[in-house]
Amino acid sequence: MNKKILIFTDLDGTLLDHYNYQTAPAEKMIERLASNDIPIIPNSSKTLPEILLIREQLKLTTPFIIENGAAVYIPVNYFQQQPEDTNLENGFWVKAFCKDKDHWLKLLSDSGELFTNAFQGFTEMSDSQLAELTGLSIENAAMAKQRQYGEPINWLGDETLKNEFIKKMDLLGAQVLQGGRFLHISGACDKGKAQSWLAEQYLHNESNPDITETETIALGDGKNDIAMLEQASIAVQVRSPVHDFPQLNRTNNVYQSEEYGPAGWAECLDDILSAKR
Q1: Which of 169, 186, 203 is the last residue of a domain?
Q2: Is-contact 240 205, C-beta < 8 A?
Q3: pTM as predicted
């Protein structure tokens, strides 16, 4: 049975180095995947302008998923027909999975006095403050702030208060995801749901009649990657220099890299693809 292989990848701490945001150790593997017509699909907490820049730098022409599964962007005419329930926006077919940012900002403002000084959101920060916090350039920090579907926050309180905050947000109807650096406040969307939907579009538009299913390989390093790792055919946990591997429920078809970041990304994909020869 022939399968269409799809690579869904987190960016920060996975394909991009946690400290310098470089991809150099993964470049040969990126070229190998391109030569074998295996799509690399970013599935990230990053914003639309951030991912557009990375796609340009890596010469990717594939669809991508922004803001922890909040929306899927498909280049117009990438598939033979426009998927249902998508809107045309600036050259992309867009499938949104949650409400816009203003809704979540209001929830944060209504969270209560207990949490007033316990966090700082991206909207409150200047470009230079965010750049200092993340190591991004001023320009890239400005792009990181251009969120459409949620609000990342820098948690300043302790773990006990954070747990209380998460429970409060849940009661208000928000979902809280722990990323590599920040808590992400948004709706009931995740990387796994968006990944599953996009994989279905690939299969629905596959022109080769011998291909009857997709094989999704998902790579990530953080807690906000758990949903896509659980949903994928093959899960790859990329080693992080700042935290342990997040715990998964699944035990089958799980790889854990020895190397960090993009080196670990390439290491595990080499193991997986070599096993398919």
Answers
A1: 186
A2: no
A3: 0.88
